[in-house]
Design a protein that fits this description.
The protein has about 160 residues and is of the alpha+beta class. It contains three helices and eleven strands; from the N terminus they run βββββαβββααβββ.
Length: about 160
């Protein structure tokens, strides 16, 4: 990845299947996730994952990102319009190739992260949105990230590589 991108929007959902709520800022906690989000390890209310107490996490569930350009592209190409946050990802980005961040360390605002793997769309996302979203977002559904160092994330924050 060369250059940098920006955080456009920030979302959390307090529990599984709850509507994503847009935030003006959110606290990112290393190894735990976003405070107040369904996948924050002390809460353990996400749809797909449950952790044991004191279990170390390095699995890409701390934070999810999606390119705003991908959301725009599926509307243009497939006629699928997602409302803000309906993609179920925590961060919408602009001007950053998220697929290139798999295995890479990068900064989101003052938070240090590592890309774990692609965040491919799932049947659950299609079930709660509309038919076709699974195919439309394949290989551009975003990035699953481990948070390595705490900090705050806000819209307008810079996303930049560290390596």
């Amino acid at each position: 990845m060369t250059g940098s991108g920006t955080v456009e929007r920030v979302f959390i959902a307090p529990e599984a299947e709850a509507e994503m709520e847009e935030q003006t800022d959110v606290e990112a906690v290393a190894g735990k996730g976003l405070r107040g989000d369904r996948y924050f390890s002390e809460i353990e209310t996400g749809t797909f994952v449950k952790w044991e107490p004191d279990e170390e996490r390095h699995d890409g569930y701390d934070l999810t990102l999606i390119e705003q350009e991908a959301v725009t592209a599926i509307e243009r190409e497939a006629g699928i319009e997602l409302t803000p946050g309906e993609h179920r990802r925590n961060i919408e980005t602009r001007d950053v190739a998220l697929n290139h961040l798999v295995g890479q360390r990068f900064r989101v605002g003052d938070v240090i992260c590592r890309g774990d793997r692609l965040c491919e769309p799932c049947n659950h996302l299609q079930r709660i949105t509309q038919d076709g979203v699974l195919q439309a977002l394949t290989h551009r559904g975003g990035l699953r990230v481990d948070i390595l160092e705490d900090g705050m994330i806000r819209p307008g924050d810079v996303i930049e590589p560290l390596e």
